[in-house]
Automatic annotation (TrEMBL):
Protein name according to UniProt: Putative ribosomal-protein-alanine acetyltransferase
Stored NCBIfam families: rimI (TIGR01575)
Record-annotated N-acetyltransferase domain positions: 6-158
Source organism, top-level taxon: Bacteria
Span list, region Disordered: 149-173
Molecular function GO labels: N-acetyltransferase activity
Gene3D superfamilies: 3.40.630.30
Key words of the record: Acyltransferase, Cytoplasm, Transferase
């Protein structure tokens, strides 16, 4: 539960049409993911996708996905693929709740977390930095077709505790 009248739980195949619609609304200038891309992501065994739902109806208002790469012998690492919240629901802590769910996946295996974020997305950058991410590089022209640059950010491995010393992850599952 996020405390905002919303809940974070697992993204399902039934959510795909809404995810694709939100992508078209929010990322029209940078090749929004079609439904087929969400389907492939959900079907990959190394990915975990989360949904933010408005209560009481359970409408999908945000989503996020993280992949776990590597193995126990050589070590794991996680990569955040996407995080998005519908414009009408921003500022309610849903992005923070989705990020916490993904970081819980990484923390459960003590893995570093990587991501890319637009260099002009100050809100997202601030959120990531507040969770221990640091900028590690710039990818010029990363987002297409707009040509916007991205920062590569990394958060070092944690042992299951978030920056506040509390257990990270989902409280409703």
């Amino acid at each position: 539960m996020t405390g905002t009248g919303s809940v974070v739980d697992a993204l399902t195949l039934a959510d795909i049409p809404r995810c694709a619609a939100l992508e078209r609304e929010m990322f029209a200038e940078d090749s929004p993911w079609p439904a087929a891309a969400f389907r492939a992501e959900l079907n990959a065994p190394y990915n975990r996708y989360f949904a933010a739902r408005d209560r009481p109806r359970g409408d999908l208002v945000g989503y996020a996905g993280v992949s776990t790469l590597g193995n126990e012998r050589d070590g794991h690492e996680c990569e955040i693929h996407t995080i998005a919240v519908a414009p009408a629901y921003r500022g309610r802590g849903l992005g923070r709740a989705l990020l916490a769910a993904m970081l819980g996946v990484a923390d459960s295996i003590t893995a570093p977390v990587y991501l890319e974020v637009r260099t002009d997305n100050d809100t997202a950058i601030s959120l990531y930095e507040s969770h221990g991410f640091v900028r590690s590089g710039v990818r010029r022209g990363y987002y297409q077709p707009s040509g916007a640059d991205a920062y590569t950010m990394i958060r070092p491995p944690r042992d299951g505790d978030d920056a506040m010393g509390q257990k990270a992850g989902m409280s409703t599952r």
